[in-house]
Amino acid sequence: MFEVIGEMYSYTFMQNALLVGIFGGGLLAFLGIFVHLRRIVFLGAALPQIVATGVATAFFLSVSPILGAIAGGIIGITLLSFVGKNSHLPTDGWIGLAFAAGSSVAIVLLALSSAPDGHALRFFTGDILGTSRSDAIYAIIAATAVAAIFKLFWNKIVITGFDPVMSATLGIRVHVWNALMFLSLGFGLAIVMNTAGGMLAFSMLVGPPAAALILFRSFPLIIVTAVITGALAAFGGLTTSFLLDLPGGPTMATAALVPVVIAWLVHMITTLARAKKSGSQGKSQSHSVSGSKSSVQKTEE
């Protein structure tokens, strides 16, 4: 088995796909923790469609698709952050409109562009096995850049995300640090979507962090678990797709969701075991109390 896997990853295209999967998957799994905790998962679903519109616009204007993806992610995040606070329509409503508009406008722009259908379709459905070395380098740079940003401004990003009222009281510019977090999310999604497609990107964004949040309460442990789970899902999905001759992107996306099922089962088993243990302890304590009362009564007699 190890010889087969070693031979499998001797191919350059498999190495590139693995690098994109590990670094891109780990990056989105990390950002997905904040998406879950901030309860903006629907935004994570709408962003790939917005990024797709940026890519389609790039094809329409005959410029680099990666520039269109990054521009689409950043502009989309900026607009959604602004209109949600300056309109009577709730933020969820604007996100829903962005999801619908991104899906439809991207197809229209793509139909109007002169790009070959197969080449343009790669940026929407994803072709993880068709990644180049430059795609892998982009994923590594994106993961490193986002990690550096969060390392430098960790306290302010976290406190503004989870307690904006106290942050404003302390004089922290909440909108600035929220914008930095959202821009990191849009940038990470754009880089991964450029090679892996929206389905894999969204699965990596929600699957591994959900599994970590189900299992643990310690924030550092949640981060480590989510990132490692995302990387392992990329490796396991890519290996399975090669061995069983399955499509790479959908197989990796499925592998990113499997840990959620496992985590939920482990959580249910441990919860039932604790309930059973506490019930048995309660019975033993009641028996001991009854025995004590009986001995006291006999002594009084």
Explain briefly what this protein structure is:
This protein has 301 residues and is an all-alpha fold.
Write the layout of secondary structure elements.
Layout lengths: L1 H7 L3 H26 L3 H21 L3 H19 L7 H22 L4 H9 L7 H20 L1 H9 L1 H6 L4 H23 L1 H18 L3 H25 L4 H53 L1
| Biggest β-sheet strands, sense, barrel | none
DSSP helix fraction: over 70%
Distance between the termini: 77 Å
Give the second-level CATH assignment, the architecture: Orthogonal Bundle
Assembly level: single chain
- CATH fold description: ABC transporter involved in vitamin B12 uptake, BtuC
Provide mean pLDDT, rounded. 82
- Given helix and strand content, the structural type is mainly alpha
User: Any idea how many domains?
Assistant: 1
The parts where pLDDT drops under 50 for at least 5 residues are none
What is the H/E order?
Answer: HHHHHHHHHHHHH
Number of DSSP E strands: 0
Radius of gyration (CA) equals 24 Å
Strand content: under 5%
Shape: globular
CATH superfamily: ABC transporter involved in vitamin B12 uptake, BtuC
**Number of helical segments?**
13
Characteristic terms for this protein:
86% helix, 301 residues, 13 helices, mainly alpha, ABC transporter involved in vitamin B12 uptake, BtuC, globular
Account of the 3D structure:
The chain is mainly α. It has one domain (2-282): Orthogonal Bundle (ABC transporter involved in vitamin B12 uptake, BtuC). Helix content is 86%, strand content 0%. The chain has 13 helices and no strands. The longest helix is centred in the last third of the chain and has 53 residues, at 248-300.
